[in-house]
Description:
globular, 9 strands, single chain, alpha/beta, 297 residues, 37% helix
Amino acid sequence: MEKIVGGTRGRFALQTNGIFLDRLEPSLLQKLHTILVSVDGSEQVTDRERGKGVYRRAMRNVETVRGNGYSGDMVARMTVVQGTDIFENVIHLLGAGLFDHVHWQLSFSMFWKSDVTEPGLQEWLTKYNAGVSSLAHWWVDEMARTGKVPGIVPFIGIMRSLLSGAKSGLRCGSGDDFWAIMPDGRISACPVAVDFDFSVVGSIQTHTPASLPRVEVGEPCASCDILGICGGRCLFVNKSQDLLREGAYAEICGTVKHLVAELQGALPRVRALIDGGLVTAADFDYPEFNNGCEIIP
Ligand code: SF4
């Protein structure tokens, strides 16, 4: 049975830890456009956060569903905790030969007031930014070498905006083209903020998507120079700044600004590769719909 939504065929995305992914029937697999699997990088890095054996089981199951005929977009969805070598772990997942794309987001726990901050965060953030720089150089070098755009989601999404000049709203789409429906019918702009008043914008009994009020990010995003590229990163964090450690918002934004600056630096080379016919602007048209990748880490 095909699902028709608003006159167009519905597209389904699954976000999973991968543990029981192999149990999905091939007939269900074929209906999925995207599968996002939570792995954080190498076996050591993934198992440290998710438990012993998780990496091998998730990777084996990804291989199984590929063998069972899944041909859609397979995304490795990393949560990056303090200490992670971003360069090594993204390269590891891309090199596994199982994923079309790799996406990551920084773990909230580094910035939350209620979590214990490990010593050395500032040093690690410096290393993280350096790793992002190395990865951006590698990404463009690979394009030049192979004529293919490696599937690093944050880079592709931001480069797409830089190439087109189009301004972006919140990349996760929360309150714009994405809502979470609660079992009682309430509609939440953000799926992780269902208990927060700012996020509950209506209900399926009283609203249609067109009649739902938009939720905009506030300061410091509203007056940020790169709002049109970043989009405000995360609605929940923007609206819950009182839950962050002092200075944490600026620390997060420091990483976003570094990432955007690296891609702005790479833009002339990417344009030259497009002009030279080695890659095309269409190679950066990802994701084709809001598939759960927030683009901004
Ligand atoms: S970089 Fe920071 S302040 Fe600027 S738009 Fe992004 S989240 Fe907001």
